[in-house]
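note to self — DONT lose this again. spent like an hour looking for the file last time. sequence + predicted structure for the chain T wanted, 284 res
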Amino acid sequence: MDTQHPSAPSRARSRDAGNGHPNRGGLVHDNSRHTSRFTVIGNHLAQHADLSLLAIGLGTHIQSLPPGAHIAIKSLAARFPEGATRIAAALRELERHGYLRRVRERVPGGRIITRTISCNQPGAPRGQEREHRARTAPAPARRKALPAVPVPVTSALLQPATDLLAGLRRHDSRLLLSTDDTSHLAPGAAAWLERDITPAALRAALTEGLPEGPLHRPAALLAHRLTALLPPPPPFSPPAPQPAVRHPLQNCGGCDRGFRAPEPGLCRDCRESSAGSGLVRWGP
C-alpha cells in the first residue's frame, strides 16, 4: 500500500528530516517509493471511522486482488485465521458502506450467477462496472450481407425502381425495407424495368407466392428473386421504316393540274414537254 497523501491531522516527518522533534513520541514514516506490485488505497477506507479493523483490512486485501479472484467466504476463511463468521460480518460491513456490491447476472446458457463488485471509492460513477458489462456482454449478431443483384446498363430507371421497392409494403406488410436494403436492391429492379418489364409485372414477380409466416430476411429473399427470375432482354426489333414524305398539293404553272411537290412549279409532264421543246415556262 502506497499512501502518498495521509489525512491525519498532523503530518509526521521522516526521522531523516533533520528538523523534526526526535524527542516527541508518535508515528514516524520511513517510506520508499513503490515502483511495482502496489495498490493505491483511499484514506476514506484506511481511516474509516465506522468500519472495524477487520473490515478495513479485508477491504484493503480485496482491492489488491486481480479481477476474477475468488472472494467467497470459504476462500477467505481458508486464507486468513479469523474464521468464516467474522469474515462474513466484515463483508457485510463493507457492503453496508458501499465498498462491495453484489449483483445477479444471467450468463450465456441461461444460468444466473451472483457477482461481487469491489468499489475503491463509494459514491463515484460506476465506470468499471459499466466497462465490465461491456466486456462480458454478448456481441451483437453481425448482419449478414445481402446477395448481389443484377446491374442495369444505365441509371435512368433507378428512381422508378426505388419507388417500386418502397411501395411493396403496401402489398405485403412483411416487405417493409430499410433505406440501405432499398438502395442495394434498386439496381436489380432497374435491370428488370430496362428489359421492357412493366412495373406491375415486376411487382407481381416480387410479391406473389411468398412463403407463409414471418419473413426473417425479406431483402435477401427479394435479392434472390431479382437475380434468379431475371428475364432475358427483349428480342431485337429493327427500327420501323420512316414514313414516306407526303408533300402538299401544288397547281402546275403550265397546265394548272394539281400535283404534289415541296414548292410551286411545273408538274412532271410539263417539265418533260418543256425540256423536249427547249422552252421552259415559269409561272401560270
